Structure formats: structure tokens, C-alpha cells
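If you are new to this repository, start here. Below is one unmodified record pulled from the training split, so you can see the exact layout before writing a loader.
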Amino acid sequence: MAVGDSPLPPLHPVAGVRLASGEAGIRRTGERDLVVLELGEATRVAATFTRNLFRAAPVRIAEAHLAAGAPRYLLINTGNANAGTGAGGESAARSNCQALATLAGCRAEQVIPFSTGVIGEPLPADRIDAALPDLLQAMTADGWAEAADAIRTTDTRPKGRSRFLALDGGTVTLTGIAKGSGMIRPDMATMLAFVATDADIPDDLLRRLLRLAVAESFNRITVDGDTSTNDACVLMATGESGVQLDPEDTDLTRFREALTLLCQELAREIVADGEGATRVVSVRVREAASVAEAERTAFTVAESPLVKTALFAGDPNWGRILAAVGRSGIADLAVEAVAIGIDDVAIAEGGCVSPHYDEAEAARRMAQESFTLDIALGRGDHQATVWTCDLSYEYIRINADYRS
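And here is the target side for that same chain:
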């Protein structure tokens, strides 16, 4: 189940990037579950990772290998998270990195591993090793769509976005893919995202651009409030276009906006494909004393099981929203200053029901596949939006059956 009809759009090749996808039989046979992504020698890479303290072996190794510099390959497997696997899990991930490095003629530290899937089961490293020679022979610049499909776990559809961006210095390409459907509350959702551009971007600036984009996209979504052990978002800049960006560049603002928009589109696709989702809801909190306060309040509402089940029912049970706002941790909240609406339908104000409240109209809005919960705190000028979905019977079925 997923919200809306969202076929994968055309994904443009990015000069300096080649990909291949294949079957390693990691968890099931007959499914693509392994991706190798090759980067040109001049490519710079930035990444953000989960803050979950039970970070998977590939997360720890990926961070160490990125710190060593000069990454040439990303190795991505689904079906097994290689998390909670102790020393054996780390050994397996390092073995796969070495196997790919040997075949490709690079150092093991130049291979960055990523895993997603079931936690606590040993990674079948030998099956991955066996699949690598064929993948290296199948590398192509047009492999983005197949890779988007291969990195899925419980996702019902692949997720990707691509665009050309005309800058003063020339035209650059941005292409990204993501996976995620459950265990989604990224804190850097189970999510992985890989975005590439052919712009030439210095390391420090690349890291800052990624951090800013993630803060306004992947770190603003929640399906079930669970942060994975494996979350990662990677930004790669090959420099192949010859278009250079730096902090003083007038093109930088436009590039940052395009990157953030692409990440937001991928993030919303994750929510729309949330396990069992039937509705996508924007929780917008405004008039907050700070962005952090707005985010905290929005997440409290977006992750409330009572709010989420009301969203599934299409029931404008505004008392649940009001209660979630009231427990969001604002010690000096003036409840009489709070106003709540569904789209432009006023629900509550002054600490009680709005005199303009029309329940039939509110229910009509909530029957849509997408709408906004608008919450004004009456405390300042800051705002934040979090994207979430409803909580349905299907979510429980999917997760009850996940390992079977």
C-alpha cells in the first residue's frame, strides 16, 4: 500500500558515476539485492549517518573509510542490515570491501559499504563476494533506475528524482535515489539515500550543503518514530561538468535550493510509501519561539499514535492534536494563544474549539490523500514542517510478518 500513483521519473546519468545491480540471494532468491556504484577518481563524497547508538557495522566502517579519503566505490546490499552482529558483522563487511577492492584494483578503504534489512542476522558475505564480478562487468551510467529498485526492502516502489540545473557557470546534473518505508524517523529512516552531481564542490562546502539539505528534508519525516541502526545519506560531487561552486559563488544559493528540493521530494516519497500508509500529512508548526521548538512540537504531533490513527480514520478528532501540542515540552506555553487548523479550516483557538469550526468540512479535508495540519503557537516568528503518514491496520500486518 502506498499513497498516490508515483511512477519513477526519468533519472539522468551523472558524468563520473556508473552503477550496476544484481542478485546475490542475500535473503530471497530472484530479487535484485546488491548495488555497486563506481565514482570517478576526482569525486568528493560527504555523508550523514544515523545517531542510533546501535550503529550497524557498515555504518562504522563507512565513516572510517570516508575519513581515509578518495572513495571510489559504494557497495549497497539489502535484505540484511548487518546490525547487532558483533565482531563477525564487522569482519564480513570488511571482507566484502576487500573483495570489491581486489577486483577493481583499489584500496579496501576506497570502498564504502551500506546495508539495510533484517537486524541481528549474520551477513552472507560469501554470496555478496560471488556476485561482485558480474556487477563490475555490467557497470553503466544509465543504471540509476535499476539501483533505485534494488535498494528497496519493504518499499512498494522505487524512489528517485533527477534534474538539470542551469547556473551562470554552466549546466549541472543532480540525480538521487532513496529507499525507506518503515523504521522511519531519521536522526542524522530504515532509509538510505544516494545523491550525485557533476558539479565541482570542495569537501567542506559539500559537507555543509548536505547537512543543510538533510536538516530540511530527511530529518523532517517520520513514519513510525523509529530511528534505524543503518540510516545514511550520501552526496557525491564528481566535478565532471567543470562547473565549480564555492562559498562566494552566486550560483551557490540556486544549487543549495535545488539540492534541498530534490532531497525533500525523495523524503516525501518515503512518507508516501510508508508501511501501510493511506495518507500523507504535513504537520506545520509556526509562530514558534525557535525552529527547534517548532520541530519538537511537529514531531510530537506527527508521531502520536492517537493522532496517526485518527488520520487513518479521516476523523478530525482535534482533541488529540491539542493534547499532543500540550505535551510537546514547552513549559511556558500559553494555551490560549494556540490555533489549530486542517488546511484552511479553523479547528481550535483560544484553548478551545473555534467558533468557525465546521466538522463536516474538516472531515472532507481529512478524507483527502494529502493535507496539512496547521498549528500556530503564538510565541514567535519561527516555523518548521514535518511530513508524516497515518497508522493503519496494514502497518501492523507488515511488521508482524516482517521476518517470516
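Two things worth knowing about this chain: The longest strand covers residues 170-179. The mean pLDDT is 93.
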